[in-house]
Design brief:
nine-stranded mixed sheet, transport, globular, 3 domains, 9 helices, Immunoglobulin-like, Adaptor_comp_med_subunit, Mu homology domain-containing protein
Amino acid sequence: MASVVAILDVKGKTLIQRCYRDDLGEDDTLTYLERFMPLILDMEEEGQPVPPCFSSQGINYMHIRHSNLYLLALSRRNSNAAEIVIFLHSFVQVLIGYFKTLEEESIRDNFVIIYELMDEMLDFGYPQTTEIKMLLEFITQESNQLKAQIRPPKEITNAVSWRPEGIRYKKNEVFLDVVESVNILVNASGDVVRSEILGVVKMRCYLSGMPELRLGLNDKAMFESIGRGGKAVEMEDVQFHHCVRLSRFETNRTISFIPPDGDFDLMTYRLSTIVKPLIWVEAEIERHSETRVVYMVKVIAQYKRKSTANNVEIFVPVAPDADTPRFKQTSKGKVTYAPDRCGFVWTIKQLAGRQELIMRAQFGLPSVRNEEDAQKLRAPISVKYEISYFTVSGIQVRYLKVVEKSGYQALPWVRYITQNGDDYSLRTAHDKGSPPIRQTT
């Protein structure tokens, strides 16, 4: 439980605060809030990592940072810090859902609604309603609709607070997307130094009534419990939407839930496994003189022929002072110079599996005199892509059942997508004449 929740700017000035308990004292609360930023700065100056939870003079500080804002909760008691930090993240998502962007200006322009949201989301410091779809039912941004309610909406008091009753659709459908993002780092020798798969199961439900959905995956723990063979996936760090019945999952690994209406993320997972780069890129750098450098970039699609990567973007860094770019026309795609990013981008709309492409780029340089300048030419190459109907982990949806008391027939749709993660880097640029890089398999 939190005694105080506040939003501060990047300098530590309080923009909004709400006191839920009087154990801190009204006058002392401002003092504790003012101490927060100096405590953060002291830790940074000493080279210490700033933890999301710390204590000072008997006060517990729990915080997260979003953009140029700090969301801070204070407590004197021995509170559940993890629960409060999760609430602050949920609070951020609710505010973004209301105002599209969360920044200092949107806080100042909408402080009335924010205070109403804080009162509904926390009761005496305990988290209550964090589902934005439910909050939108009775807290709106239209001033003429901000009316006092005689009684709380029934969704708030329901056991299923995330889904209102009485939903009706002419056509009952449910869409499920398994989206996997690949983070990978390849060193100059062509070896995979680090790789991981971050997965999320996204759903869009347009179902009438109060349906119960049951989802089965080729989960390794479930396969072992029933003695079934076949390809299974061992997922780590699994997190579910709060609609999932965790007791059933822990008992028989069945994902059972009553879904919210519309879009939501059902679950996230991670796989820390070594994977080969699905799109391999290497650049050969040839210096023709001190003032001219040529790149030969080669891309290889290392996935099955039946799959196709869409909207591929290959970013190759160049020296900050490079100029006069010249690109040789490629058989596929388009190359553009991006001086603001110190590099050039090779865009390929569709890249079929096992396909190989080559392009050449030439730049002028004021001079290339030392190894430090040469290292700038060999900066990591980054890649963006999306491959539909393909999963790198091998995860599969075994079944998706919809059960509703009226017995209507629902149409389930399942799709798989693999894409690059936030960190897909290949340090595979090398000077011509140096030892060739070793491609992973």
